[in-house]
Design brief:
The protein is of the alpha/beta class. The protein has 15 helices and 17 strands.
Length: about 400
């Protein structure tokens, strides 16, 4: 078995995450629920606390020192996220409450401005519900239709089938970059090229990609890309939507209220230019600052070393779990992040997770908000262990030991 690369100082990295230094049921915490939400480094926690303790005020238009500080920090956060994804300008970044909010924003505004009766939206069979339901709602309103790129038996997109599905009525192609259920890293640049060649708008759900894959929107060639702070070591309740300037300028407002206007009268309203047009009301200022600090934390690390470390964890965990009798492992792409979704014959995942929790091992169970994918796999639910930069080879061993003991206990 390969050893974990030493290019990253994992002990030092773990030491920056205070939540990892605790016991659960008398056992050291082994946190393997990272695809649902990651833990937060102290620098992110400090950034949020420092804002509330020294600079708490509303942003924009305030003519006092605290408001000036808050506005400066908030706009600096926007610039940091723009740098993180290699956007052309900070104005191409909109702060939202997360990827779900970003995708709802796009489905609502494109549904109102771009989609018409008979048009088609192209999704994939591995999408999270947040990249399915908003498009269903938008299509139902205008009489558009959804096409679905199929998934192969090993959990990869069938790009040849995707090419066959694209046609002159395809107006939007919205695709997940990294599957939250399978760990598959899709060839997102190829999907975006497919959209561009058809004259369609390309949208990337990068919720899982943020913590694992370097992001360059220029290289990908996407029109829009959505990030979620809490999946890349930032706070919950904050996300960022990248949009090409010309695409953002063509969209109507999503929500009405303060900040998103130039002028208001009862005779009519003139809307602000992006990004303000899409940030009605008081934003999550502390969340944006925390998300920017998380992006800064990630940028300080060697991304090649992160990839090597996570690839080693994935290989070790995959080889080990397949030694357990009765294991079904879903998602066998050679290009994936360390997400293991599995079942054990004769054991419901809802029964498995509490036993692992007794050993201090935190995993996720259920349909992972991917019910169409579960149907494709022929299951209703699965267990999922997801690893990230602060997980170790020793934690893989604890997980496998706990899984083996759980199987013995539950099957007798």
């Amino acid at each position: 078995m390969p050893s974990t690369p030493t290019a990253l100082d994992i002990a030092s990295i773990r030491g920056q995450f205070p939540a990892l230094d605790q016991q659960v049921h008398g056992k050291p915490l082994v946190y393997l629920d990272n695809a649902a939400t990651t833990q937060k480094p102290q620098c992110v926690i400090d950034a949020v606390v420092n804002f509330y303790t020294s600079s708490n005020a509303n942003v924009h238009r305030g003519l006092h020192e605290l408001s000036a500080r808050a506005t400066k920090a908030y706009e600096a956060a926007r610039a940091q996220i723009a740098s993180f994804v290699n956007a052309d300008a900070a104005a191409e970044i909109i702060f939202t409450s997360g990827v779900t909010d970003s995708l709802n924003l796009l489905a609502s505004t494109l549904g109102a401005s771009t989609l018409a009766e008979g048009d088609r939206v192209l999704l994939t069979h591995m999408e999270h519900h947040s990249n399915i339901v908003p498009w269903q709602m938008a299509c139902e309103r205008v009489g558009a239709h959804i096409d679905v790129i199929p998934v192969t038996d090993i959990g990869e997109l069938d790009l040849q089938a995707a090419a066959d599905l694209v046609g002159p009525q395809t107006k939007v192609v919205s695709c997940v970059w990294v599957s939250n259920a399978l760990g598959t890293v899709n060839d997102i640049a190829a999907v975006c090229r497919l959209a561009a060649n058809a004259g369609a708008i390309s949208i990337v759900d990068a919720a899982q990609a943020g913590a694992h894959v370097p992001i360059d929107v220029q290289e990908i060639g996407c029109d829009f890309l959505a990030l979620s702070g809490h999946k890349m070591y930032g706070p919950t309740g904050i996300g960022a939507l990248f949009g090409k300037r010309e695409r953002l300028e063509a969209l109507p407002p999503y929500k009405g209220g303060g900040e998103m206007i130039q002028s208001v009268s009862f005779a009519g309203t003139t809307y602000a230019a992006p990004p303000a047009r899409f940030e009605a009301g008081t934003p999550n200022i502390a969340g944006a600052i925390g998300m920017a600090e998380a992006a800064r934390f990630l940028a300080s690390l060697d991304r090649d070393a992160i990839h090597a470390h996570e690839a080693a964890l994935n290989q070790i965990a995959t080889e080990s779990i397949l030694q357990i009798e009765g294991v079904q492992l879903f998602g066998r792409s050679a290009n994936k992040v360390p997400i293991l979704t599995f079942n054990i014959d004769g054991i419901h995942p809802y029964d498995l997770a509490p036993v692992l929790d007794h050993y201090g091992v935190a995993i996720r169970t259920g349909h992972h908000c991917t019910q169409p994918l579960m149907d494709r796999l022929g299951i209703s639910a699965a267990a999922r262990a997801s690893f990230t930069i602060y997980n170790t080879r020793e934690e893989v061993d604890v997980f496998i030991h706990a899984l083996t003991r759980a199987r013995q206990l539950l099957l007798g």
